[in-house]
């Protein structure tokens, strides 16, 4: 395959194009031995997906709960590495990986070893109220796991169970720090403590968080308030009157639309400034700004490093905190451990939620975001020590096998292949883009995209969707060139059949 130039982020001045790196497996020499031993060579398909067994199980499940989102029933005992098996005996190359949440692949030997390790047994059978009764090895585990990969400049972390509650509690941290500054560091008044119990000011202040169109941050109520993707996520739920700015809609290929994309990002930043001023005048100041580093569910929408630098500047000018949501982009998939490291921000973000590939939820935060009273950010479990035991094994493999670098190298190779295919099918595909192994391509409409997804699945490749008509790829960190070749071959064949 010919080498091309690929979309990448320039941390100093925004986007630029550069030559793709040559593919090298030096960093994966050890990693191959731990994932390739029992991994299938290719997909193996026996039925259409979903097959008869999946359909029967779906019928049974539907008798007790709404199950319209179920695509097929998996056989996780037979799944291995980058391949997912279903109950009908099909074996598919998984390029979506449980909505981007499988770091090393299925049944990775090192993770199985961690599960069987006697020293981890107590963590799996005794789930503590972690905020009250942490185990004696909890601090050591935190240092070996979450703090060993903390975003540069952030030395505080709060564990949680999932991405949505991580975002929601991060919002609370931003509100609390805003109010502490307003009080000059003094504690709350008696009036504030009493009025908050009635959902009234001054204890329940009129504050806002600014978010972006097409952003997705979760399905709990606070996270939904800053989510603006599909109606099905939000319909019938009350939502606060908070400002929503446009997120840049970049045009591709980037090197042909440099001026237009710069203008678009300036327009969006100016809108942020205007909305901040408008809500201040309304008596509802913006306490925080929240954005994904890449808008994933909303369509794999990117913005440049200069855009995020400008966003941080606006937050600081207005005394607001900046949350960069890394639930889907963290843990090495972009070629850096945290996607915001590509942005060369002048200071760390104030709040960085994580989950998915990190196996546990939580958020990193600055010193200013740390609560000054106990029980302000709290729930029964505040995380799960058993997930920390598994995360310890995952991070060991990531570091040992150079999987962050692997994401960059294989991501370049995959994007080269997608560009080749896009050039062969310009009437069907457009806007190939990505960062590391996060990759996407647009189709003319949702019906075409969904047909491609179905055809690929029946030929043995499981891919995902996002946005209005976007095909989304989210492979594991252990993906290799051979997996990409299988995907590209099947993808090209499906597009030929579609013509």
Task: Describe this entry's structure for a reader.
It contains 16 helices and 17 strands. The protein is of the alpha/beta class. The protein has 3 domains: 38 residues, no CATH class; 174 residues, Alpha-Beta Complex (Aspartate Aminotransferase, domain 1); 265 residues, Type I PLP-dependent aspartate aminotransferase-like (Major domain) (Aspartate Aminotransferase, domain 2, 3-Layer(aba) Sandwich), CATH 3.40.640.10. The protein starts with a strand and ends with a helix.
Contiguous helical run count: 16
CATH topology of the largest domain: Aspartate Aminotransferase, domain 2
Q: How much helicity do the residues have?
A: 25-40%
How much of the polypeptide forms β-strand, as a percent range?
15-25%
What is the rounded Rg?
A: 23 Å
Largest sheet: number of strands, sense, barrel closure: 4 strands, mixed
Widest sheet: strand ordering: 3-4-5-15
DSSP E strands, number: 17
Distance N terminus to C terminus?
A: 23 Å
Number of domains: 3
- The CATH class assignment of the largest domain is Alpha Beta
Determine the CATH superfamily of the largest domain.
Answer: Type I PLP-dependent aspartate aminotransferase-like (Major domain)
Structure class? alpha/beta
Which overall shape is indicated by the principal axes computed on the Cα atoms? globular
């Amino acid at each position: 395959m010919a080498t091309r130039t690929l979309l990448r982020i320039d941390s100093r001045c925004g986007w630029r194009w550069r030559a793709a790196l040559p593919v090298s497996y030096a960093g994966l020499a050890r990693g191959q031995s731990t994932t390739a031993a029992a991994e299938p060579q290719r997909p193996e398909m026996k039925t259409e997906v979903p097959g008869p067994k999946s359909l029967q199980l779906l019928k049974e499940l539907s008798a007790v709960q709404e199950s319209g989102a179920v695509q097929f029933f998996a056989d996780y005992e037979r799944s291995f590495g980058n391949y997912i098996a279903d109950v009908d005996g099909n074996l598919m190359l998984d390029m979506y990986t449980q909505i981007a949440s499988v770091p090393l692949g299925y049944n990775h030997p090192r993770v199985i070893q961690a599960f069987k390790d006697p020293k981890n047994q107590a963590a799996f059978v005794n789930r503590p109220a972690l905020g009250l009764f942490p185990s004696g090895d909890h601090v050591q585990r935190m240092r070996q796991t979450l703090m060993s990969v903390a975003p540069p400049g952030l030395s505080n972390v709060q564990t949680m169970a999932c991405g949505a509650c991580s975002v929601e509690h991060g919002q609370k941290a931003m509100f609390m720090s805003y109010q502490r500054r307003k009080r000059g560091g003094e504690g709350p008044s008696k009036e504030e403590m009493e009025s908050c119990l009635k959902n009234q000011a001054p204890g329940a202040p009129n504050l806002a968080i600014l978010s972006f169109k097409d952003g997705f941050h979760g399905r709990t109520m606070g996270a939904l308030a800053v989510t603006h993707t599909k109606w099905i996520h939000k319909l019938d739920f009350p939502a606060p009157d908070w400002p929503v700015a446009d997120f840049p809609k970049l045009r591709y290929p980037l090197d042909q639309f440099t001026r237009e994309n710069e203008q678009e990002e300036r327009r969006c930043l100016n809108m942020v400034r205007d909305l901040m001023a408008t809500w201040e005048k309304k008596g509802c100041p913006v306490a925080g700004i929240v954005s994904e580093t890449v808008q994933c569910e909303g369509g794999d929408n990117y913005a440049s490093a200069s855009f995020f630098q400008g966003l941080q500047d606006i937050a600081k000018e207005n005394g607001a905190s900046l949350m960069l949501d890394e639930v889907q982009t963290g843990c090495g998939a972009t070629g850096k451990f945290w996607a915001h490291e590509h942005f060369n921000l002048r200071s760390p973000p104030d709040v960085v939620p994580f989950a998915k590939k990190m196996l546990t939820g939580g958020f990193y935060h600055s010193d200013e975001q740390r609560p000054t009273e106990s029980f302000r950010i709290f729930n029964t479990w505040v995380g799960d020590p058993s997930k920390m035991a598994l995360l310890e094994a995952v991070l060991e493999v990531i570091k040992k096998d150079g999987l962050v670098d692997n994401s960059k190298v294989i991501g370049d190779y995959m994007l080269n292949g997608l560009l080749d295919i896009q050039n062969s099918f310009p009437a069907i595909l457009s806007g190939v883009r990505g960062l590391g192994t996060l990759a996407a391509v647009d189709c003319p409409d949702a019906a075409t995209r969904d047909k491609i997804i179905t055809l690929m699945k029946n030929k043995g490749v499981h891919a995902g969707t996002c946005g209005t008509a976007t095909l989304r790829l989210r492979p594991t960190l252990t993906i290799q060139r051979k997996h990409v070749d299988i995907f590209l071959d099947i993808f090209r064949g499906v597009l030929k059949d579609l013509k």
